[in-house]
Structures are given as C-alpha cells and as structure tokens.
Prior knowledge:
The structure is a single chain. The radius of gyration is 21 Å and the shape is elongated. The protein has one domain. Helix 2 (about 20-55) runs antiparallel to helix 3 (about 60-90) and helix 3 runs parallel beside helix 5. By secondary structure, the chain is mostly helical. A two-stranded antiparallel sheet has the order 1-2. It has helices at about 1-10, 20-55, 60-90, 95-135, 135-165, 170-175, and strands at about 175-180, 185. About 80% of the residues lie in helices and about 5% in strands. Strand 1 (about 175-180) and strand 2 (about 185) form a beta hairpin. The protein has 6 helices and 2 strands; from the N terminus they run ααααααββ. Pfam families: DUF6992.
Amino acid sequence: MVFILILVSFGFVNGQNEMGAMEFNQTRLDYNKKGMLILGLWAAGNMAVGGVMAGRTSGETKGFHQMNIYWNSVNLAIAGFGYYQATKEIPNSEFWATMEAQQGIEKILLVNAALDVAYMAGGLFLLERGKRLEKDQFKGFGKSIVLQGAFLMGFDVVMYVFHHQNGQNLPKIFNKLELTQNGIGLVFPL
C-alpha cells in the first residue's frame, strides 16, 4: 500500500525529448521533495501510533512501539532537512553541476539501500539476542528495526528507480552540446 502511494505521488517520468537542463533539475528536486514528504509522513505516523501504543502495552510490543518512536524521530529530522535542502536549491543549467547532482543522488540512494540491509541484519540480531536472553524489549526493538529497515529499503529503491529514470534524459539534453569557436555551447535547431 505504501509503495502504491509512492508510485502514484511521483507520477510518470517526463518523457519529453526536448527536456532542458533546468527542467531536468527541477524534476530531480521535485522527486526529492515528494520523497521527503513521504518519509516525513511515515515517520510522523509511526511516532503518533508508537506514542499511543507504547503507553498502552507492555513487554515486546511496548519495545516495538518505543523503537518506532526513536527510529522515526531520526527519520523525521532527515525528512525535514532533506525537504528544506530540496526547496532551497535553485535548478540551474550548468552541465557539470547537473551531472554531479544526478550522480550524487543516485549514489546516496544506493549507499542508503546497503545501510538498510545492515539495519535489518541488526534488527534480526537484536531479535535473536532477545530470544536467547529472554528480553522482551530486545525482541520488540529487533522487530521494529527490521520493519523500519524494510520500509527504508523499499523507499530507497523506489527513489533510485525514479531518479535513475530521470537520469536517462541527460543524454537527450546534452546531445545538443557542440564545441564552437567560443567554447562549448548549446545548439538548437531552427
């Protein structure tokens, strides 16, 4: 359900052949804004439910909800900062800045996906440790971390796919570059 919401909110990647660098960068920033809104909503929802349920439950379930609050307070801070950054950045048409920004976001998302696997492994370790030590809080924490890691993995993969598809427009934009007497310039058909 969450991934359907993500897919619907992003819409289809712009398929225009004449997309310019400014539009390309604006699309990248729009994806980042929407992604951070989704992450922020996930975090706020988890914190709200966790806050209510941690006070009404005990043992493993209480640990689960407590960790959801802790984990998602960090997610909410990341989402807020990421949204702020995306709204602050002004799209430009500079070739190298566009390339660096595109490659940067794709690398960040791939690194995050690898970290998500590590989070899930850590959650499984805590879950197993809780079973061996008969510590309900560890079991609850472990289940929460597995859930949060799984969500983040799906989120990062979907974000990567959208950004990567948008990146497929770069050759169309920069095919118009030509070396002229004055340097590199854009050539538009008349």
